[in-house]
Inverse folding.
């Protein structure tokens, strides 16, 4: 991969920092977020690597990853991060960025078929909030 | 009033001359009232530069010198010495700081900087006009040092001072000396046994004719200042006459009360009457008040019955002695960060999660397992041992922000020692970086990887839990991008080094300032690394910051050298810029006496006015700011001078 | 002392075991819960995005309504607790945001309200001792693993609910009910939360770990204080069992259902009917509920 000043300093990373209120450069890549993430089994890229991609300005790779969608905001990463980076907040910001650009991840029919009568309202509402644009 | 002042403007290479127009400044100063001579030079601090000053003083019969140069912290001493060589008093040389206070901060405003330089210099000329030559008062110097803490640093500094011919009192809080080094098994990078290399020092300390060793004692208070400290020392009752005791050990053997051993990191037992370790110096026991059945409820008394020399003395009480010293070296050492606070590692919850210091005791021939690596829960040999570095270190959010410096090396050592004792075992080391700066250190780490096959995994650990008698570790390998799980038999945490739990209080009591964590604060972090801002107080070892044995020894030598420097003088010459009293204005209200932190002010009972004990005064100015009618003044810093200076700065 | 309580969207129709049993228990304990009059949905999750205050409006409205009725607001559901407490923290510390919200709502958030979870309510307002005194039925035969999940504990500095790694309030509550709790290493880990609408596999992974380790440590059932945790832990078991025969199904109770049993409250059939893994055979086997009563 070629590192370019224009990419490293791009507006996208600034936007993610602004949305999340976090400094992605505070991350020193210890991997603790990935180490304790209960959903890492579903992710295509480890959470700390998402941070690394942002540090290097790799917008496309960060946005193409499925990882942010699998974050359940359980905050294990955020409370244990030695640098105080709210990793879950950054995942939320990536999701928000994608949603604002029209990305839709909610498959209503599937939910309806599966668990319509049982799923608590809060599950459905938060599903809409996190996965629907 | 001085009438022939010389002004010397230093270019400081280009530091000053590039911003300040030196020609304009010199022209202005030549015309200034009371200035007899002004010139500039590229580097006045150089030898030829100093010669120019000396020559000019003589040639133009100057009665005072203003150096327009860098900060007085940098070269005040240099220039004052030059002035003295040419026959002036050192207080007839003043510094106008036109580098830090002008050229460095006004790089983009050259014309204004030039104007400001003229004002700064003029202001100093005005002050100098009214300066008087000052001579420092002398005071007696007690050439005897106190060293607080007898770990490896304290012992070394005591030996270095004593071997230079001065008397030392070495004080230790524990019943025996040696500190944490006495707990260690082997030492990196040579793997020689810690006890073996330390014993010659403990023996030398205890037998040295100029070292008075006092164990089981603490400093209670300290008064006075450099050259003459009065220190109160609290001697804790050992409930045993240490002079009578022969150290035969029968009392220990017969004592029926077993308690958890601090020295063995609570992995073994000791008796209520105990010595720290088999090699303890002094090898005389103490009775632990909390656990002795006789002291608690007058039952038992076995130790007294079996002691053939009648050394046991249950009636002993705490005693306080007062001693005088000229200098104090603080070597109070370190504690480990309280690992219970690091919840994710399970320390305190799972028996087989231990600290690095615990692991040292497991490795030690005198430890609870006689040097065999057996895990605490069931005494089995662990075949998978996980070492976690940076637990509590480099963690600004949840623990300590700094690097504890020694953990990379001792963890490498632990892995090597473990593999030697358990050849079919596997060591896993979770790390973020490997910091192995030091002679032979990097080679040692590589040996652990190449020869002992310690597996270094780059990632922090996030979760530790128990499953089927194993300790499961959740981590990540950032190098391969994989999530990692290890089912370990034992986990060793390389825990952060922190100052002693009471370091801040002890620092306050000893007047040694401490930083936000409680480590000693240096007078200058690079140039005066073992000196406290308060004169006559020095420090060394881990109390100043995390460091390994070679660094501790080096720093101990450095602190000893500072003490020796101090003791090489016959008398102590104090600060000549001291407070003085305008006797006709002073009403003897006594506010200054209360304000003085150095006991340097008192009320003259006959004249009912305040006087200054010049030898004790440090010129801090506290008395001047509290004086309600301006009767207190600092020499060469009178109200008159200050107002004249301010006039020039408008 | 009576404080208003906040039911939230789920409690009155899909989590009666939490809602109705809490109210019945609180009545017995002499600390009845009165529904907050003018409440709004908590928004079901907290948005950490910094540039959109819309997400915080409904919780602020609820907090303003609560302030009119008292200094404290009792919450049963962990999610509601989490959202309301985090939003109240933002309102307390960020004057600028408070102003914007005020301008929009034309109603000022001035009086801070302390958001307390039902567990805290029972501990601090009733007292676990008093809870213990009111126990009528011996449920000590039940081996229950408390499940805290995420939203009571994290972010720990902001919520300050309990120790984030070794919490104990659930255990103390169960202890007062006369029931010893089973410790398990995943009691503070995620259940999969809202991923239930997105990734079945993700939720099953999480639930499998939580229940398997609780079972390994000797638990026969788990207890929660959140309808979504409860649903995930309960619902996902079917699929986990399909994929892994060895998996042991276990009932998932709301903490309030256990409280109701211990206090001798008649638990209505519709409460048990909410469960996916029917707890009645388990309770009957333990002699807690008579078979004939089912």
């Amino acid at each position: 991969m070629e590192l370019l000043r224009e990419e490293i300093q791009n507006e996208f990373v600034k936007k993610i920092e602004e949305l999340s209120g976090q400094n992605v450069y505070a991350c020193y890549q210890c991997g603790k977020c990935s180490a304790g993430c209960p959903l890492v089994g579903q992710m295509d890229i480890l959470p700390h690597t998402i941070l690394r991609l942002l540090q290097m300005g790799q917008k496309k790779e960060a946005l193409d990853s499925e990882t942010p969608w699998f974050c359940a905001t359980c905050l294990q990463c955020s409370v244990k991060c030695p640098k105080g980076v709210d990793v879950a907040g950054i995942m939320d910001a990536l999701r928000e960025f994608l949603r604002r650009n029209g990305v839709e991840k909610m498959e209503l029919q599937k939910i309806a078929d599966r668990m319509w009568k049982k799923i608590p309202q809060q599950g459905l509402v938060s599903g809409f909030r996190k996965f629907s644009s | 009033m001085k009438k022939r002042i010389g002004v010397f403007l230093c270019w400081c290479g280009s530091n000053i001359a590039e911003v300040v127009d030196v020609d304009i400044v010199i022209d202005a100063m030549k015309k200034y009232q009371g200035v007899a001579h002004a010139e500039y030079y590229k580097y006045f601090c150089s030898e030829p530069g100093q010669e120019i000053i000396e020559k000019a003083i003589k040639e133009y019969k100057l009665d005072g010198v203003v150096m327009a140069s860098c900060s007085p912290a940098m070269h005040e001493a240099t220039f004052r010495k030059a002035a003295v060589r040419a026959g002036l008093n050192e207080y007839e040389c003043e510094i106008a700081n036109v580098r830090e206070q002008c050229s460095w901060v006004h790089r983009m405003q050259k014309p204004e900087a030039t104007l400001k330089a003229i004002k700064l210099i003029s202001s100093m000329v005005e002050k100098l006009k009214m300066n008087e030559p000052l001579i420092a008062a002398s005071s007696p110097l007690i050439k005897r040092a106190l060293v607080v803490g007898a770990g490896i640093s304290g012992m070394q500094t005591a030996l270095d001072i004593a071997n230079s011919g001065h008397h030392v009192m070495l004080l230790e809080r524990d019943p025996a000396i040696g500190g944490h080094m006495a707990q260690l098994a082997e030492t990196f990078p040579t793997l020689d046994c810690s006890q073996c290399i330390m014993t010659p020092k403990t023996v030398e300390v205890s037998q040295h004719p100029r070292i008075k060793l006092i164990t089981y004692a603490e400093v209670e208070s300290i008064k006075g200042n450099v050259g003459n400290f009065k220190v109160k020392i609290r001697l804790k009752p050992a409930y045993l006459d240490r002079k009578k005791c022969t150290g035969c050990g029968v009392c220990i053997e017969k004592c029926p009360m077993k308690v958890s051993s601090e020295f063995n990191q609570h992995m073994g037992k000791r008796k209520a009457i105990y010595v720290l370790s088999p090699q303890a110096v002094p090898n005389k026991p103490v009775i632990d008040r909390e656990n002795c059945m006789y002291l608690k409820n007058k039952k038992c008394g076995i130790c007294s019955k079996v002691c053939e020399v009648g050394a046991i003395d249950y009636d002993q009480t705490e005693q306080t002695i007062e001693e005088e010293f000229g200098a104090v070296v603080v070597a109070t050492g370190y504690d480990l960060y309280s690992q219970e606070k690091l919840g994710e590692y399970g320390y305190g919850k799972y028996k087989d999660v231990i600290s690095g210091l615990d692991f040292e005791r497991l490795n030690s021939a005198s430890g609870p397992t006689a040097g065999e690596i057996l895990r605490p829960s069931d005494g089995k040999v662990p075949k998978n041992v996980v070492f976690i570095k940076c637990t509590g270190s480099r963690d600004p959010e949840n623990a300590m922000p700094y690097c504890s410096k020694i953990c990379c090396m001792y963890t490498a050592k632990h892995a090597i020692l473990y593999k030697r004792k358990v050849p079919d075992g596997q060591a896993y080391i979770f790390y973020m970086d490997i910091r192995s700066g030091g002679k032979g250190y990097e080679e040692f780490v590589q040996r652990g990887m190449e020869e002992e096959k310690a597996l270094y995994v780059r990632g922090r650990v996030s979760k530790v839990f128990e499953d089927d008698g194993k300790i499961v570790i959740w981590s990540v390998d950032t190098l391969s991008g994989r999530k990692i799980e290890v089912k370990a038999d034992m986990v060793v945490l390389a825990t952060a080094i922190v100052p002693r739990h009471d370091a801040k209080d002890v620092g306050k009591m000893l007047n040694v300032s401490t930083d936000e964590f409680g480590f000693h604060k240096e007078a200058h972090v690079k140039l005066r690394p073992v000196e406290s801002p308060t004169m006559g107080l020095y420090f060394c070892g881990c109390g100043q910051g995390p460091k390994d044995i070679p660094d501790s020894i080096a720093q101990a030598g450095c602190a000893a050298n500072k003490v020796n420097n101090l003791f090489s003088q016959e008398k102590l010459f104090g600060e000549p810029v001291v407070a003085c009293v305008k006797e006709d204005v002073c009403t003897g209200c006594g506010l200054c006496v209360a304000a003085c932190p150095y006991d340097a002010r008192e009320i003259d009972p006959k004249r009912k006015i305040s006087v200054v004990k010049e030898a004790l005064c440090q010129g801090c100015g506290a008395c001047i700011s509290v004086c309600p009618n301006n009767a207190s003044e600092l020499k060469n810093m009178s109200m008159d001078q200050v107002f004249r200076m301010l006039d020039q700065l408008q | 002392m009576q404080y208003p309580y906040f039911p939230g969207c789920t409690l009155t129709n899909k989590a009666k075991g939490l809602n109705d049993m809490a109210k019945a228990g609180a009545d017995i304990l002499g600390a009845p819960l009165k529904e907050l009059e003018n409440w709004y949905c908590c928004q079901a999750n907290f948005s950490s995005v910094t540039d959109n205050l819309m997400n915080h409006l409904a919780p602020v409205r609820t907090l303003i309504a609560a302030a009119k009725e008292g200094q404290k607001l009792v919450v049963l559901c962990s999610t509601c607790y989490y959202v309301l407490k985090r939003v109240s923290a933002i309102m307390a510390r960020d004057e600028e945001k408070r102003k914007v919200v005020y301008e929009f709502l034309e109603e000022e958030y001035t009086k801070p309200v302390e958001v307390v979870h039902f567990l805290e309510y029972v501990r601090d307002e009733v007292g676990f001792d008093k809870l213990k005194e009111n126990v009528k039925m011996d449920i000590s035969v039940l081996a229950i693993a408390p499940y805290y999940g995420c939203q009571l504990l994290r972010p720990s500095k902001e919520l300050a609910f309990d120790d984030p790694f070794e919490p104990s309030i659930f255990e103390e509550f169960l202890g007062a009910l006369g029931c010893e709790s089973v410790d398990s290493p995943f009691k503070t880990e995620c259940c999969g939360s809202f991923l239930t609408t997105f990734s079945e596999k993700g939720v099953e992974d999480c639930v499998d770990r939580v229940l398997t380790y609780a079972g390994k440590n000797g638990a026969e059932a788990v207890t929660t204080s959140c309808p979504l945790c409860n649903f995930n832990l309960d619902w996902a078991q079917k699929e986990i069992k399909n994929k892994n025969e060895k998996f042991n199904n276990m009932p998932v109770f709301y903490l309030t259902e256990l409280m109701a049993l211990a206090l001798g409250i008649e638990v209505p059939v519709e409460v048990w009917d909410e469960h996916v893994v029917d707890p009645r055979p388990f309770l009957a086997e333990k002699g807690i509920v008579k078979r004939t009563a089912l």
Observations:
- The longest helix of chain C spans residues 200-216.
- The domain at 4-119 of chain C is CATH 1.20.1050.140 (Glutathione S-transferase Yfyf (Class Pi); Chain A, domain 2).
- Chain C touches chain A through 46 residues (CB under 8 Å).
- The CA atoms of residues 46 and 83 of chain C lie 5 Å apart.
